[in-house]
Design goal:
Blueprint lengths: L7 H28 L11 H32 L4 H29 L14 H11 L2 H29 L4 H20 L18 H7 L2 H12 L6 H6 L1 H7 L14 E3 L11 E7 L18 H8 L2 E7 L5 H10 L30 E6 L8 H6 L6 E3 L9 E3 L2 E2 L1 H14 L5 E6 L23 H6 L5 H21 L8 E7 L13 H5 L6 E8 L6 E8 L3 H9 L3 E3 L17 E5 L6 E6 L2 E6 L2 E6 L14 H23 L4
Parallel strand pairs: 2-8, 2-9, 3-11, 4-5, 4-8
Antiparallel strand pairs: 1-12, 3-10, 6-7, 9-10, 13-14, 14-15, 15-16
Helix pairs in contact: 1-2, 1-5, 2-3, 2-6, 2-7, 3-5, 10-19, 14-16
Length: 661
């Protein structure tokens, strides 16, 4: 039996690949040696993870860099005259990569930030930028190093190709399988993770220590990621200032500073006797729209448990998500700043990963995040691990009892079961936990392990009447309700329950052309895509309340802190409207990123200010004559709500980039 022989061109390719990978690893080590002063003693144990995740990013860059080389190898096999061109192109490509690394080192030394797309802003003033670089950095030495890199790569590639081609003439047909094998192997490692989501930039932000995260980053990949995400969005400082006074008054900012656009409020601790170490559980229910609840839909009764829970808890009946997006909901709730980016959600943008999260003031609390799929979904991991001290993320593959259900990971039933088990057995201190469900979402999969849940049959016309697109969607919502009920049955048997406050709400609603159980104005203005329930329940909640105030998703964490009686500092939009008396009537910003031109609105009580392109108006969205524009009849309210709509939008855009921890 003949031995398996590795072709020479594969050996050539692997030598080139390994050389580059080791070079990038060496540059990471040099970065550590040069800038190690940013490393604090308590975070030294995270170095191994920084190098491990960093190595995966280096592997990805090496993968991309080696693809042109593989093309060069194959082209040289066809025509040996292309060998010199291959050497020159390889040298140029390596030199560009090294130029990015050198620029990154210089940029970090100057700003303590890894290089990002913002460097392209310097092109707008090329002469000034070149002069600054000449006076600041050793440009001559950098140029000489680049020339040395080009020459070294040229010689290496020349040697590899000559060594390879002198050894054997290639039969491309017989070697094709080797090309496929090596690419499949490398693609597996390029993916970087053994789950549904590939390695993403958020994996680099696995620590609250900025230097550890900077050490993990690969500058070339980071430059690409930030350019891809950062270019479409920008803020307008002057526009934000023009609306500042209205927003500062609305949020009751005591030390208003229009120049700095400060919204800083120092929320004091409650008296000692009113402070509580309650556990807090924040539950994002996927697509839990207000119009689909049994509360508003008794004929279909899709959520009987949520209905029962709401009647015995604190229920907010006018609670709104700023935008129709799960990723934007997670960002908005965690940071208490509405995600008003025009392109991709902020949570996907590495430039916006650094945010002030004031629940870090709960220093004696353990923090958890439970998700049925991957923590890499929408780069959620970055916003959580980088900003919340000591948070533990549990995802598919980490639970004791789990079965893959569909693209979103394990079922809601298993997610709740595992979250309850972990909180019951592992939490040794008061805890602050997030649970994010995903079951009520296409493909609406009911798991094989579904307990006592039974499918229902409903007439299609009745489903259509109440905004359900299919029987699968209807049963999926019913199963989500069932999973939540099972969670509470288990939780109520645990010791932690009597000391735990649960916040249950939808991440967003669902647009529909018809929903006969809702005012027609809410359907036509598409507010059913934003209105969701907020239920606050648990052992400490002894009295049921039905609150009609207009409240936003970004107000959830401030309300949680208010119930704990804990103080904090915030410079964002969210505020406590539950335990603190506010002079200004609460309201909610509405923003539609799906519409072009964009749509900005503001809801306050029975009124809705709406602006789209050059069209704007003030409406009573629940009335029969909801289309009647009241701007001329109530000019003061119109101007007030207009200023708050645009003010909250413009200042939120600004705060996305200016609310770092």
């Amino acid at each position: 039996m003949s031995k398996l022989r590795l072709p020479n061109f594969i050996k050539t390719y692997l030598i080139f690949f390994t050389t580059n990978f080791l070079l990038f690893s060496l540059l990471r080590f040099i970065f550590l040696i040069v800038f190690f002063v940013g490393l604090t003693l308590e975070h030294t144990n995270e170095l191994w993870r920084a190098f491990w995740i960093g190595a995966k990013f280096d592997f990805r860059l090496t993968f991309w860099l080696s693809i042109p080389f593989l093309v060069f190898v194959i082209s040289c096999a066809i025509d040996k005259r292309s060998r010199k061109l291959a050497c020159v192109l390889s040298g140029l490509l390596e030199s560009v990569i090294l130029l990015v690394y050198m620029s990154d080192f210089a940029h970090y030394a100057y700003t303590t930030q890894r290089i990002s797309y913002s460097v392209f802003e310097y092109i707008k003033n090329p002469l000034i930028s070149l002069k600054m670089a000449w006076e600041t950095y050793p440009i001559v030495w950098m140029f000489l190093i680049l020339m040395l890199c080009f020459y070294g790569t040229y010689r290496l590639v020349k040697w590899l190709l000559e060594k390879d081609w002198n050894a054997k003439e290639y039969n491309l047909q017989s070697e094709t399988c080797w090309v496929i094998v090596i690419l499949v192997f490398l693609c597996f490692w390029y993916f970087g993770e053994i789950n549904s989501y590939k390695l993403r930039w958020s994996s680099a932000y696995h620590s609250t220590n900025r230097f550890i995260c900077s050490l993990t980053i690969n500058p070339v990949i980071h430059l690409y990621d930030t350019y891809e995400m950062g270019v479409p969005d920008n803020y307008d400082t002057e526009k934000a200032r023009s609306y500042y006074n209205a927003v500062a008054q609305f949020l009751q900012v005591e030390n208003a500073d229009k120049q700095k656009l400060s919204l800083t409020r120092h929320i004091s601790d409650a008296p000692k006797e009113k402070q509580r170490d309650y556990n807090v559980v924040i539950i994002f229910m996927e697509s839990l729209a207000w119009n689909k609840l049994s509360l508003n839909n008794p004929e279909l009764n899709p959520t009987p448990f949520i209905d029962k829970l709401a009647k015995n808890s604190i229920l907010f009946t006018n609670f709104f998500a700023p935008a129709e997006s799960t990723a934007r909901a997670v960002f908005g709730v965690v940071t208490t700043t509405p995600d008003v980016t025009r392109a991709q959600p902020s949570i996907r943008n590495p430039l916006l990963v650094d945010q002030q999260v004031f629940i870090n003031s709960l220093t004696n609390y353990e923090k958890y995040y439970f998700v049925g799929g991957s923590g890499n979904w929408a780069n959620t991991r970055g916003i959580l691990e980088y900003n919340i001290d000591g948070i533990k993320i549990y995802e598919e593959g980490m639970y004791k009892h789990e079965h893959h259900n569909d693209v979103w990971g394990i079922s809601d039933l298993e997610l709740f079961t595992e979250a309850n088990r972990i909180l019951s057995n592992e939490a040794k201190k008061p805890f602050f936990a997030f649970i994010q469900t995903a079951g009520f979402h296409r493909p609406y999969t009911i798991p094989d392990e579904h307990g006592a849940f039974e499918l229902a049959e409903v007439d299609e016309k009745l489903l259509e009447k109440y905004s359900f697109n299919s029987i699968e969607e209807y049963n999926s919502l019913r199963f989500s309700d069932y999973a939540l009920e099972e969670f509470f049955k288990r939780a109520q048997k645990e010791e932690y329950y009597e000391n735990t406050i649960f916040f249950i709400f939808g991440d967003h609603g669902i647009p529909a052309e018809r929903s006969d159980n809702m005012p027609q104005g809410m359907v036509n203005f598409n507010l059913i895509a934003n209105q969701i329930p907020l239920i606050i329940t648990g052992g400490p909640i002894k009295q049921a309340q039905r609150i009609e105030k207009t409240v936003s998703q970004v107000d959830v964490l401030p309300m949680a802190m208010g119930l704990l009686g804990r103080g904090y500092i915030t410079d964002s939009v969210g505020r406590d409207v539950l335990t603190v008396n506010v002079d200004a009537e609460p309201g909610a910003l509405i923003y539609s990123w799906r519409i072009n031109p964009l749509h900005v609105g503001f809801i306050q009580g029975e009124y809705f200010y709406y602006q789209e392109a050059n069209k704007e108006g003030l409406y009573k969205y629940r009335e029969t004559e909801y289309r009647k524009n009241l701007a001329s009849e109530e000019p003061e309210r119109f101007e007030y709500m207009k200023n708050l709509a645009h003010g909250l939008y413009e200042i939120s855009r600004y705060k996305l980039y200016h609310n770092q921890k």
